[in-house]
Design a protein that fits this description.
Blueprint lengths: L16 E9 L3 H8 L13 E7 L10 E6 L2 E11 L3 E8 L2 E11 L5 E10 L1 H30 L5
Antiparallel strand pairs: 1-7, 2-3, 3-4, 4-5, 5-6, 6-7
C-alpha cells in the first residue's frame, strides 16, 4: 500500500497514468537525498530530466515551495515542491502541454546503512489521457532508470 500523501486531484484512482518504481542503494539516505533535491543535476543520471531552471524559492538545492522549469520526455514542465521531509519524503506537482502530474519519492533506511528508494507518479489531462496506452510503459521503464541511476550515483561517493 502506498504511503504517499497525495494532493487532492492527484490520487492514483482515476489517473490516466500511475507509475510505481523501486530501487535499492547501498548509499545512505543523506547521500541519495543530496542528488534527489538537485533538479539542476538530474541530467547527470536521468536523461529525461534536463534543463532545470529556477523560477522561485530555494535553488539549486530545492525546498518546500521551490518552483522550477525543466524538460522531461521532451516536453517543458513547471513543477513546485509540495512535500519536503529531509532524507525521507520529497514530492513535486507540475504540468505542461496538456498534462498535470504529481511525483513522490520515499527514502527508507534498509537497516544496513543503505536506502530503499520508492517513487510513484500520477498523470492526468486530456493529452496524456489520449497518449496513456503508449506512454504508460515508457514512463515506468524510464522512471526505473531514474531510480536505479539515482541509487548508483549516490553510491559513487560523488556529491552534486
Amino acid at each position: 500500500m502506498s504511503t504517499v500523501t497525495w494532493p487532492v486531484g492527484h490520487e492514483p484512482a482515476g489517473a490516466s497514468i500511475y507509475a510505481i518504481n523501486d530501487a535499492h542503494s547501498k548509499a545512505s539516505q543523506e547521500a541519495v537525498w543530496s542528488w534527489l533535491v538537485r533538479p539542476d543535476k538530474w541530467h547527470t543520471f536521468y536523461r529525461n530530466g534536463r534543463h532545470a531552471r529556477p523560477k522561485n524559492g530555494p535553488w539549486p538545492e530545492v525546498a518546500l515551495g521551490s518552483k522550477f522549469t525543466w524538460i522531461t520526455f521532451g516536453a517543458p514542465c513547471t513543477s513546485t515542491v509540495t512535500q519536503f521531509e529531509p532524507f525521507e519524503k520529497f514530492a513535486f506537482t507540475g504540468g505542461g502541454m496538456g498534462a498535470e502530474g504529481h511525483h513522490a519519492w520515499l527514502l527508507t533506511d534498509d537497516g544496513n546503512g543503505g536506502t530503499i528508494i520508492h517513487c510513484e507518479e500520477t498523470q492526468r489531462g486530456k493529452a496524456i489521457g489520449m497518449l496513456a496506452p503508449v506512454i504508460q510503459s515508457l514512463m515506468i521503464s524510464q522512471h526505473q532508470k531514474w531510480v536505479d541511476n539515482l541509487a548508483r550515483i549516490a553510491e559513487s561517493g560523488r556529491r552534486p
